[in-house]
Amino acid sequence: MNQLRRLDDNVLLAVNTLARHTPGLHGPVLAYAEYGVVVFAVILLAALFSARSRSSRDLAATGWAAMALLAALALNQPFGHLFNERRPYAAHPGILRLADVSSDFSFPSDHAVMAGAVAVGLLLAHRRLGALAAVAALLMAFARVYIAAHYPWDVLGGLLFGALVALLGWLLLERPLTWVTERLRGLPVLRSLFAQREGGATATGRHHARADGSRRVGDRTAS
Question: Which of 81, 111, 108 is nearest to 99 (CA)?
Fold first, then answer.
């Protein structure tokens, strides 16, 4: 355990040394570390737009990615208070600190938990957007260490915790969430917006095409 702590401290100090020698990165890295959640929100919206005409399973998985974010953050609060780890700038007062002082626990990182949950949640249904979210999650983890808000172990633990919540939750909820999604997208108010595409055409469009074809056949028969 002591060896892991020393390794954690050494990586923190190495990243902090990098931060001292790269003042030009302070602004953008700090901005991403604090407000990068907007990036994940945009990726989630893009995934929802992409999944709205796909299978109910994919649409449900996309919705679960957003729900997993909230569930992981809610679970992380009592989990983090069990450890109640101090922030790195409290234990190492001589390091360069770009982050605002916080009285909240350091392990696991809330930002990393959020990022891990979204990345794994999206990978359940979106290969490219999930990969993009995974890259954004790794950048978020690095940024939180760069600004001295967290130890490396804090962000690694956060990524893993968020990923586990997303994955285990989906294993438990895949069937009920898919069933609910199937019922919801059948409601008149949502049918046109979330019509499922089948073979290049939406299910609604195919239904109308069949109905029109039946009428034309009926008209010819009547004539």
Answer: 111
pLDDT, tens only, 17-32: 999 999 999 999 999 9
Query: Do the Cβ atoms of 181 and 32 come closer than 8 Å?
Result: no
Contact 182, 58 (CB under 8 A): no
SS3 6: helix
Q: Tens of pLDDT along 106-127?
A: 899 999 999 999 999 999 999 9
Instruction: Spell out the long-range contacts of 1-4 with Cβ–Cβ below 8 A and sequence spacing 24 or more.
Output: 4/153
Residue with the two structure tokens 């983890």 = 141
> Which residues touch 69 (CB under 8 Å, ≥6 apart)?
40, 114, 117, 118, 121, 162
- By residue range, what is the domain housing residue 41? 2-184
Q: Are residues 143 and 215 in the same domain?
A: no
160 and 133 together in one domain: yes
Same domain, 162 and 211: no
CA dist., res. 64 & res. 66, Å (int) = 5
Beta-bridge partners for 202:
197
Of the chain, the percentage scoring pLDDT greater than 70 comes to: 88
Q: Distance between CA 9 and CA 3 in Å, rounded?
A: 10
Strand partners, 201: 198
- Choose among 153, 169, 159: nearest CA to 136: 159
- The pTM of this model reads 0.83
